[in-house]
Amino acid sequence: MPTSISGVHDAFLSMNCIFHLPIFPVKSYQSSTQLSPICAPEVAVSSSWGHPVSEVRFIPQINKNARSTIFNSLVSSLTKGVGSGWRHYFNQFVRLHCERLPLLPIGLTSFKTANGSHGDGDSTTRGVDDNGSQNKCGESAKKVLILMSDTGGGHRASAEAIQAAFELEFGDEYKVFVTDLWKDHTPWPFNQIPRSYSFLVKHATLWKVTFHGTAPRIIHQTNFAATSALIAREVAIGLMKYQPDIIISVHPLMQHVPLRVLKSRGLLKKILFTTVITDLSTCHPTWFHKLVTRCYCPTPEVARRASKAGLQPSQIRVYGLPVRPSFCKAIKSKDDLKKDLGMDEDLLAVLLTGGGEGMGPVEKTARALGETLYNEKLGEPIGQLVVICGRNQKLAKRLQSIQWKMPVQIRGFETNMEEWMGACDCIITKAGPGTIAEAMIRGLPIILNDYIAGQEVGNVPYVVENGAGKFSKSPKEIANIVANWFGPKAEELKKMSQNALKLARPDAVFKIVHDLDELVRQRDAVSQCSLSLT
Question: Taking every annotated instance into account, which residue ranges of this chain make up the domain Glycosyl transferase family 28 C-terminal (predicted)?
Fold first, then answer.
């Protein structure tokens, strides 16, 4: 337990990262060109937003002694149980950090060129890709910034699906960037969120407490406000780097702080901020923010949660979960795919996956299937197995060393999952929303063998109650389910395949990007109309 003020401060920062305590909504104030007495004497910021990137200058950092004084007062008030007093110091602390932000020339590619004139397509703007290198694009190209974080593989997969759909549908009309805002643009401990998440989900009880403990609005709103106070400047610089016309969040922790930054600079009417929710049912309340232009929901259940959180019908769209466009393409027949992938064309196949990292009871389940899918009386297999080990090379080597009695394919990290799913007849996986959505597009009955407490809990009844699959954590029971599907309960397998196809939304990612394109066109039309009237 920290015994000093500095110790409390460090502990607060660490908790904010480790527990994702994504803070009180604090009133927004306009920046001033006048320096506060407690700010270091550096360059003041102009109030105009028309400066080119090269001329951007930042307002000063808060003097360390002043910041310490405020923080000491805050802690003192908290420890003494003072009500209104500590709120006063807290709000002062937030204002000093959050509202003196860098002058962001973002979102202006459709409104002003670098020289301050209104863009007419003759000038060029400069964007930077995710690794910081410079890229030139025409003035007409709109810039899309997708905010994600590698807390699980689903967020990046959705981001890359949206990026690919923009490229397929609009070519060079849009330039799309994907960035992990926390990891790439914030200091320690906030840049450790992906690592913290990996630690937490390995300890189910700890993650469950974190997920549900931060769900109340007063908790996560309060923490987001404090987070903004500490890292608003870094977030602002990170956003400035891309000069986006559209910002798309595919992560629950990517709404509140960026929106606070944009609101403080009056950019919410110039930049379209949208959310694409990547959870199918029990999503965390931090997904929802009333200031977004659009909230794309994968299921009606999530849409109901969005409405309950205060979003208006005009903000909500139910299109489905965005998956890679390759899943929407016409593929070969199951027999042709089996032949191309080196599988037995005469046997039904089960696909067993442990995700990108090859986690979970993959080996135990594979061994159980190896025993159950072999008919000892007939001396022949009744099915075949494909195991996706992801990046888990040790798992792959252990499985390859087994003497199998039936056809088995041991694969590593695969980029053509649409083909493997198309070649198989059912799938065994944990309750990740991306894999579930992809399996449904391919009409695969799903056996869920695990889930992450919190966001994946609702995925189990979503699959089971809709008749698209079953749930079991027992490798032996799972193997028996598959054996029955490949034998006496073949009709059940067929029915579940049909139910999975009914839930599939293969065109979701295309509906999302086309709706975004329409929003951009509407905004530009309003902008042109406003210019013609001035």
Answer: 353-469
